[in-house]
Known about the structure:
Three copies of one chain form a homotrimer.
Chain A: H1 14-21, E1 35-48, E2 55-70, E3 73-80, E4 97-106, E5 112-120, H2 126-129, H3 140-145, E6 149-158, E7 163-171, H4 177-184, E8 198-208, E9 213-223, E10 229-240, E11 244-257, H5 264-274, E12 284-300, E13 303-316, E14 324-339, E15 346-360, H6 364-367, E16 371-385
Antiparallel strand pairs in A: 1-2, 1-16, 2-3, 3-4, 4-5, 5-6, 6-7, 7-8, 8-9, 9-10, 10-11, 11-12, 12-13, 13-14, 14-15, 15-16
Amino acid sequence: QPSPLSAPANDTSTSRVKDESSFLIKRKPDILENIHMNFLLRSSLEIPDGGRQSSIRLNEARFEVLGTIVPDLDFRVRYHLNSSQMPKDLDNAPGSLDYAAVNYRFGRKKKWSVNVGKQAAFVGSWEFENDPTYEYQYSEFVNFQTNLFMMAIRFGYQVNQNHSFFLQLHNTDNSSFNTTQANAGYPADGLKGAKNPMGVYATWQGKMFNQKFLTFWSYDISQYASGKTNHSVALGNKVILNKFQAYLDLQWAALAVDYINLATPSINKYQQMVNPAFTPVFARDIHYKGAVLRMDYEFIPGWFITAKGILESDSQTKNNSTIGKNFRENIGIVAGLEYQPIPSQHMKLFGYYYYNQVKFRHVVADANDNQHLNLFAVGVLYSVNAF
Amino acid sequence: QPSPLSAPANDTSTSRVKDESSFLIKRKPDILENIHMNFLLRSSLEIPDGGRQSSIRLNEARFEVLGTIVPDLDFRVRYHLNSSQMPKDLDNAPGSLDYAAVNYRFGRKKKWSVNVGKQAAFVGSWEFENDPTYEYQYSEFVNFQTNLFMMAIRFGYQVNQNHSFFLQLHNTDNSSFNTTQANAGYPADGLKGAKNPMGVYATWQGKMFNQKFLTFWSYDISQYASGKTNHSVALGNKVILNKFQAYLDLQWAALAVDYINLATPSINKYQQMVNPAFTPVFARDIHYKGAVLRMDYEFIPGWFITAKGILESDSQTKNNSTIGKNFRENIGIVAGLEYQPIPSQHMKLFGYYYYNQVKFRHVVADANDNQHLNLFAVGVLYSVNAF
Amino acid sequence: QPSPLSAPANDTSTSRVKDESSFLIKRKPDILENIHMNFLLRSSLEIPDGGRQSSIRLNEARFEVLGTIVPDLDFRVRYHLNSSQMPKDLDNAPGSLDYAAVNYRFGRKKKWSVNVGKQAAFVGSWEFENDPTYEYQYSEFVNFQTNLFMMAIRFGYQVNQNHSFFLQLHNTDNSSFNTTQANAGYPADGLKGAKNPMGVYATWQGKMFNQKFLTFWSYDISQYASGKTNHSVALGNKVILNKFQAYLDLQWAALAVDYINLATPSINKYQQMVNPAFTPVFARDIHYKGAVLRMDYEFIPGWFITAKGILESDSQTKNNSTIGKNFRENIGIVAGLEYQPIPSQHMKLFGYYYYNQVKFRHVVADANDNQHLNLFAVGVLYSVNAF
């Protein structure tokens, strides 16, 4: 299976790097043989339309150390250098810490594994699994909809070289429900935190057609507010050819309580328009669905075009709700050009255009204006493998 | 003496590691010979009783680099990846920084040393000196009673292989008295910060009985509020046998002003019960005493049982105070089972039970209810020596 | 040119280190040949005069990794371990991050370079370019007047071994104008943030007289508030002899709006004295000028004396303003003694005296008292090159 501990992460030029690596072999001492230190860096000049200010922005700055000191035992720590280090109240881990995990393989033929600590949700989003240095703009699924770095205990079983299955017991969120509700500024509304605010991902990773087609599919069941159950399904699919890569991620989620608070504000705004005395609360019974397609093509050695499309929507249809189907839609398009001057190094000069629209439908549209963004960016990214 | 710069820190399986290390020698280049990078990781699923929420928690995540580049000159930096990085106002260092110190040995036969920077109080608590990865639950002495990571200048003299003496000039706290008082929400009450809010530890480290019995004893005198002097004594004692280790730490402290604010709230609550107009202030003349006993036994190679008992109490007896002896008691019991599958690696799968009680006596008990906690935890710890 | 990626940074004992390095060659594996990890540490006991509290303070604690993995491509990351990690709103980078930059050389003979990311302003202040471990006290130019670590895209052209020219496109500040104004607590006063709150440094670095005399000169034009243009000139000059080093930095700046907010409060205080109903705002048309002179002399091998003088002033003369010339002056004097016991290591035991005065003139002096500080400090610094 794609190792969660490989360094550096997947990118679009893997094949070229491998071809060249035989010319670049450097003597590495035994002691560092399987220890890696990485930095993920991306900076760009962003020029948005309208009254928004232009600026040069630090898009990525992460520090990573990972390794395998003895066979069958791995560790991984990854850390944002540009986000708050305050620990959250449910998991005692800060948002700046992506990974702080230990992975141990055991059993006959080492087919079993257990991974404990702060880690990535094994949800099956190729957009999220990609080296973040390379993802210029994310879907709302990655940015908000799903809690992607969390405390978990993940059990794995590798059936053969091509197929693995996982069960991942996880905290539903990093903060407690009461804290999340207080931060949103909502009253209790009959809700309280679950005694066990946890869930389980059941995940399949597969490689097919001579490892040219990869699947990463999951089902999750979790609770956060007491007595309210969430379900979600994610189907990540990826094609890797010589000069071309693409992924298509398909996602569904059903939240009894929309504690994500992404679709909720538009409903609250509508309810307050109808009834000015209405007190904002978390919306109930929100259904999310989303699709993300990205394609990368190396049209000349070292030159890439990349294109990405995002389509996501929220619905509330239970009990014939007037809110209705697809009352909120998020649409994103990225089109970019990349130049990688040094084949062995994951450094690229890039430029891209990004269009984003958030669109409202039905009664919710009466109270919420659609939002548009046009953005042009040029910059440099470098996924540094220091050793 | 036990070097404050050894990597990784003491643990319960040292003897087994040494036996095995001859089979695990890895080629290390000269340049890294005496440079070490460590990560301290512990995560566990914690299941408390009562209405408290269960969750998987990040118990430890620290990053450490230390080394000796040339003989007689050491540096050590250790950093929490999961606590706030805001500097405190008296020492300009954040709580997340355990160590940022330079140690220099000098004089004839290099028997003298000076250690300057953020460092551990040389107080003589084996509980605190233990690798924090291994200490599942701490006494209040470590968590609150004593300021254990602080700015200091420590002079040492090594009499012989078995005995060393130290004088450590240190800031009493990380924040100024005025800030501590403001954070507690108390009025000045006639107190102000000392011009020199510092103290001195006088410490003896000894090894006896063929280095099977270790002492780590200290006396400290300090001031924090102007004209108010604090005294404390700590006697740390440790036994190291082949399959068995134990320590017994005994501690006393006399605080003219209880700026620790651990015993104070229960007295304030009592005073407000007697007189609702009473304004909360720091209690005066608090006497603390504590004892911590921990035992570790490797009953089968790779399998350990561990047990820990904590007993601490506060008294206020000056001028026949009605508050009286042992008006607040903290009792803790930890019983655990550990499995270390790979002898050379400080990685353990563990489960433990923790009982904690805070108990009030005499008049203070009229206003404060006793508190109880039962906790069961399972998880993984790994004190990683990356190189 | 002096490489921005050299490790460790310039210091006053370079010549001695080079002499000795042939005796200290350590085997370094290929993989780490051009990768460096550094720690900058300085701690001291500071004893100020008057009612101020003495304390041992952590003056410096920075972590740095930099390197050149393949020719012509460098990266550099440097990080404060003792300042807040919250990202600023304009650049998405925290104040704790000094560097997170990628440098790429290109073109015929690799004379061209582009450096993108969080980086140092190429302003030409030798005081600022010096390893911060060695600068005990900074001028206001470094501390406040100039935004020295910022997001930028820097193009360079190396004419020959001795002369280079640079154009650095940069964000004017790390936060947006609206945030800066809100943090200062001032009303809009007819100002708003520029659509493009950026500027450009044009810089010359030169080496003359057998590389014994170094120049680092720049001109900058930038905007921050909409329609308000800032200009500045900096002339950094440095002499490097065998046992003696000195730099003289000369600086001018003209700010249409004093968003630095260093000179502004004294004017506001005066305006409020004249008219108690006056609402504090950013002062307009402030002219700054400054000079910093530092000299270091190794009078006995391993023993250094250091002296530094700072003189800075602010004026407001446009439209015959009553505020006038040099209405605020900052004067600083540092005199110190350093002992470096190990020639190959940038570790020094030091003591210094610091005098600082902020002085007001003309009408502003009627509302503002002069301020004085005397400070004595002893401590240890170590610019650690771990590998």
